[in-house]
Design goal:
The protein has 449 residues and is of the alpha/beta class. 31% of the residues lie in helices and 23% in strands.
């Protein structure tokens, strides 16, 4: 048998790579993991964790305002961006240490260098060292895309948003997806005037139409501006550091202190050597894999965002677990991609699982739609007219709940438990027979008629 330096060499220490590395090592494999940036990957270092902390921070603007209606004498409050920024970055560093300790405790060798693939079993490190592995796992994730327009270098992406020196007064955000809408709520909560610029007339494509329309309505009521059918033409930087953003579709140029591109994420495979090693990539640069996460090269696998299947951290973790169990644990299994819950941490947040109404009608034909459109009790007393919307999609013939979509306070927290029922294929009758938990927003799920 051929001898290799490692049984498994993982490139990329994000959520999927770390899970695959530590579980494989626990099965007895000799494992190394290479990371050119920081251990933890997108989610921990520059994604969902620090972003959610900023979401919490920005929401205090509304909470402090609403507290007065609940009897609290709240003085005028000033927001200190550097204090929050530094607290969030300190938490990121703490989590990075936990991830590193987890790898160390499982005897995974951590290599803080860029690694490239130079053959089916060969890896070259940035320092020049060459190593071999029986199996190579690509888990490098994805990276923010930038539009190809004059002056695009003057904009930032979500990566840099966590490191701003000062909080801008005017922010232009390019894109209509979840990152754009989440950061719109964050910057707005911190007092900035926000304009979302999108090349189409839709936000959050792929989410249920009624729910995303409700977010658009609420966002506009809050004072967030939207400019649709507006592709970027050029960006000009002024002497004072401010920007002038020119878009197509009519409309005056936009003046901004910060321009943030949230126009999608692309697999981070450029310069990784995969094509030279014979690995098939799709037109976006994603590693093409089968149901067992294997590429067309038998010794090279990939998990997470680099495969461009479902760009969600929990999915990457499950893929990493399935890879380790299958290849090293003698417990082969595959990830089930049906009924994956997702959330948009906008203001207010959205969450959904299963088929949207449009998807259900296309796939199933005849469906029943149940909705609950209400003001949360807290919003009523606070004098806030913002309305929540819950939507349940039911297959008419079987009465099975095939989709659930929500927008309103704590929607992601409520949806997580409800997703279990959708995943289990429970009927509408099972929901109806469940006693409501009163008074709560979640009780609306079992009261829809």
């Amino acid at each position: 048998m051929a001898q290799y330096d490692y049984d498994l060499f993982v490139i990329g220490a994000g959520s999927g790579g770390v899970r695959a590395a530590r579980v494989s090592a626990a099965y007895g494999a000799k494992v190394a993991i290479a990371e050119e940036h920081r251990v933890g990957g997108t989610c921990v270092i520059r994604g969902c964790v620090p972003k959610k902390l900023l979401v919490y921070g920005s929401h205090f603007a509304e909470d402090l305002h609403d507290a007065k209606q609940f009897g609290w004498d709240v003085p005028e409050c000033a927001f200190d961006w550097p204090r929050l920024r530094d607290s969030v970055l300190a938490e990121v560093t703490r989590l990075e240490g936990i991830y590193t300790n987890t790898l160390d405790s499982n005897k995974v060798e951590v290599i803080h260098e860029r690694a490239t693939v130079t053959g089916p079993h060969d890896i070259t490190l940035a320092g020049g060292r060459q190593v071999t592995a029986r199996t190579i796992l690509i888990a490098v994730g994805a990276w923010p895309a930038r539009p190809d327009c004059e002056g695009a270098e003057h904009g930032i992406t979500s990566n840099e948003a966590f490191h701003l020196e000062t909080m801008p007064k005017r922010v232009v955000i390019a894109g209509g997806g979840y990152i754009a809408n989440e950061f719109a709520g964050i910057f707005h909560g911190f007092g900035a005037h926000v304009t979302i610029v999108n090349r189409t007339d839709q936000i959050l494509r792929g989410y249920d139409e009624q729910i995303r329309d409700r977010l658009l309505q609420i966002s506009m009521t809050k004072g967030i501006d939207f400019r649709f059918h507006a592709p970027f033409e050029k960006v000009e930087k002024q002497e004072d550091g401010s920007l002038i953003v020119h878009t197509g579709g009519g409309g005056d140029p936009l003046h901004a202190d910060v321009l943030m591109f949230a126009t999608g994420r692309v697999p981070k495979t450029r310069g990784l050597g995969l094509e030279e090693a014979g690995v098939e990539l799709d037109k976006h640069g994603a590693v093409v894999v089968d149901a067992d996460n294997k590429s067309n090269v038998d010794s090279i696998y990939a998990v997470g965002d680099v495969t461009n299947r479902v760009q969600l951290t929990p999915v990457a973790i499950r893929e990493g677990q399935a890879f380790a169990d299958t290849v090293f644990g003698n417990k082969p299994h595959r990830v089930d991609y049906t009924n994956i819950p997702s959330a948009v941490f906008s203001h207010p947040p959205m969450a959904g699982v299963g088929l949207t109404e449009a998807q259900a009608r296309n796939k199933l034909g005849s469906v029943k739609i149940y909705t609950s459109d209400f003001r949360a009790m807290k919003n009523v007393l606070a004098g806030r007219h913002e309305r929540a919307l819950y939507k349940m999609i039911v297959e008419e013939q079987t009465e099975r709940v095939v989709g659930l979509h929500m927008i309103g306070p704590d929607a992601p927290e409520i949806l997580q438990a409800a997703a279990v029922a959708v995943k289990a294929g429970l009927s509408k009758q099972a929901w109806d027979e469940t006693v409501a938990l009163h008074p709560s927003m979640a009780e609306e799920l079992v009261l829809m008629k």
